[in-house]
């Protein structure tokens, strides 16, 4: 007898596709390439935390079928209370298909196999990118609002963003306080990221960007000490025990003792592009003003 072997990835993918197609056919859904519809969707499933936040702010509540579990966690989401009104999905193609959505909103980094599979069984998937500028944030909100038939809500959200950021200073000049957003893993936020844009919007200089770090790059603690930023921004809740705060006790950082202002910013405020960014920038702006006052 020939021993059984584990199915190869291609075979498993084919099996999953067959199951998903069978589910789609059983539910009366077209088993073929997805075609974008111009009508406002009536059954929306979101498969990405940042997509959740925009869908929950823009779509009519009765049209939302499911959001991700991450959006229901108040430590990670700014819309946790609203998200808990809906069933959570794990981003699996089979479960999403059973929800019979006419639109799935996903992110650029949503599991590609799931996104591709949903498209192959005829479900429209709208993929959201990762904005790096405020203009791109507005364009994404406008695009999603148009597809959801929620143009008025999208315009109102954009207006809210503009109003909240209206009195911000220009991008940090050479005399502006310097800052580094540092993660316990040793990564700093560089140029080409939305957080870099927000740092500049708050009137700060991003030292990591000036060192030509792109997006998120590795920055050794020794280099951090050498750069000696005026402000060290930690992705953490204020006062909460976290690895980010424990990092401050590292012996290498003794050289910064008393010379740097540490500012915690809850990650949920700027992980996604939305109105919570206003609060994140306000925190940075307050730190910039306090630093300038101490000079």
Automatic annotation (TrEMBL):
Domain Fe/B12 periplasmic-binding residue range list: 43-295
GO biological process terms on file: cellular response to iron ion
InterPro entries the UniProt entry points to: ABC_Transporter_SBP (IPR050902), ABC_transptr_periplasmic_BD (IPR002491), Vit_B12_bind_prot (IPR054828)
PROSITE patterns hit by this protein: FE_B12_PBP
Alphabetical UniProt keywords: Signal
Descriptive protein name: ABC transporter substrate-binding protein
Organism of derivation: Kaustia mangrovi
